[in-house]
Amino acid sequence: MKSSMMVLSGASLAIAGPLLQREPEVDVVVDVVTNVVTSLVEYTVYATTTSSTPPVVHTPEVHVVTVTVQPTTTTTPTAETPNVEVAPATTSSSSTSTSSTAAATSTATDFADVAVYHHNIHRANNSAPDVTYSDKLAGFALQLSQGCVFEHDVTIGVDSEFPSYGQNIAMYAATDIENLSINEFLAQSISDYWYNNEIELYPGPYGSEPDMADFEAWGHYSQVVWVGSTVIGCGIAKCAAGTLESGMDAYMSTCNYYPAGNVETEYAANVLAPLGEASVTA
Known about the structure:
With about 280 residues, this protein is of the alpha+beta class. It has a single domain, classed as CATH 3.40.33.10. It contains five helices and eight strands, in the order ββββαβαβααββα. Helix 1 packs parallel to helix 3. It starts with 10 loop residues before the first strand and ends in a 12-residue tail after the last helix. It comes from Gnomoniopsis smithogilvyi.
């Protein structure tokens, strides 16, 4: 278990950890400061399989990154009755999948556009093809987020079209969560937590199979840029205080990836060297 904490007059904690074959151990370290924000992220990794046995889902260690933010006026969290207050709806109520390529522009405001832009801008830096957006895959992601339980589930909705998929999840809890929109948290999850926080931690060398000793430190990054994962779908729910975090409302974000990334023995072909383009943040 890796953990650290910085106590400041206003701080946020980004806690990340890849999945190893054991029950998840997720420690949330929170101290009461002027404004307390807690963020967690997780992802899945699969082992190569040559039979009908589903890929192995691994469970993460914990990695903590502290980030200083400007202090704000102390606010008192208000408990809300429903566990799930709001979540972005998919654009189709049909049980069939619809896919589209959203415009990759920095001014994207639609939920799906934000998801596609923040994936494709980083994938381009790693010479990976653009992803398209699936409403069906997003529906699976939304269902997980609406449960307000910070655990992976890559069995939701699996069928002949999506027999398996990869997954990244993140959580953000704050006393003033209304100051962060759902779209802003989606962008933050993808660009800040899953890509920028981990790109320098990938062990390399690119073009070979990486040393898996510190797998928990970079697995979100490798899933975001995985060449073979070309379809995504994301969902975010707002969860009442006491569900994901005691005393604070929280957002839970989930992005699903098809085909799944983080497949053992396939990193050399799917995680390509970054080109060194300017960093893009949320």
